[in-house]
Design a protein that fits this description.
Radius of gyration: 33 Å
Shape: globular
Number of helices: 14
Largest sheet: 17 strands, mixed
Helix content: 25-40%
Amino acid sequence: MGKMVDLNKNVKTNQDQKNLSKSSPAENEEIVPLNENAVEVLPSTKIIDINNDCLHHIFNHLELDELLHLSDLSLSSACQLAFSRRYGNKFVEIVAYECSKYRWFSIAEDIIWVHNITGCLKLLRHFGNSLYGLAIYFDHTKRIQCEQVDNYIRKYCTKSLKKLSFENAPKWVFNDIQKPFPNVETVIFSASTLAKELCEFNKWFPSMSRLEFTAGNTILHSKCIEDRFINLKHLWIEINPENGFNKSNVLACLRLNSNLQSLRLKNCFNGVFLNNASQYLQNLEELVVETDKKCDFYNDDLKMHLKNVKYFEIIVPDVIGRIPFTFDRLENVHVVAKGIYGCDTFFSEHSLKKLQLSLPLEMSVLTGSFLIHGGVWSFAESLPQITEFKADKCTFSTNDAAIFLNTCPMLTLFRCRADTQFSLSHIMQGLDKNDKWQGAVDRKKNVLLKRQVC
């Protein structure tokens, strides 16, 4: 390639060349021959000069850490657009302290996990105004880091968040909160200590429609729920006087929020309490009741009528007894036996018959020790309407599984653990071919049988 020339001095434009060919040179005018091998140097285009649509097309192929890096290079607007479109609908779970053994983030289908304080703060600073939902896991021994995350959330995320979850939050979290989260609809507390400041739910979460106290919380201001929440539609709460919520203030909450559509109550199996509460539950469409111990109303004659409930779920440790509810519009029932550590999950066909169900039933057994008084046949016969049975930790023999499948005409899904002599082919041969059952047993002896429903 020839020597590059200075285009500004020695090279004419194309138009200049045309003009030269049409006219003869003036006297004394020097004609400079063109260098055919000259390279035309165009002004360079920097990445910051590209419009946001083009940048988004490029950034759509970048990883989250790459977007964060580019956000520091005067490209925050385009990066925010790319993040919002690609990750904005994901729920972000952050560990509010240094956790060096993990890569600083990982991404699943609907969740982004952030495991590093530096990456966490950077994410909140650049993309906090695009986050839909946020869960914060606190460590009481890392107060400085936790307070940094706390401040960044309040500074960058107040307007964007619709879902906010606190895990293991100490009482000093948000203790100097100054402005509300106007768009947060779901607030969740788990294993957290709630001081009075954060418990002013109407003030800080005016759009709250779901309030959940999922497990092991300590409420320092128990009267916080004795209030009317204008938009509240769903409540999940545990009655535990040691943690702050007793029957009295929970009952007051139900009375003041009688427009609830969905309710999950734990340790509420008390006939007097439920009888008093039922008058405030007439707008419910979904009811879940749970207990860690045997119910004390099994021998009661008490019955509570809930006219609008469509979905009912009962979660019990061992024995399923009489359910003291009657319904008008019930469409689905789910019975969950979760077991107690060191104890068997015990089902009596007599107690199951007391359910008196005439609609589809789903049942999940979450414990590994599963006993049926009267045998599998009596158990299956007592639940003719069962559609799904999930007992992933319970071991079934070939014969017991076959009895269950042939005794429950409405069954469409059956899951269990296979014993050492389990034969799937023997079961499949005994099933009606017109029912179109499909089955599989994996390497871990998990059995799945599913019937195609036309």
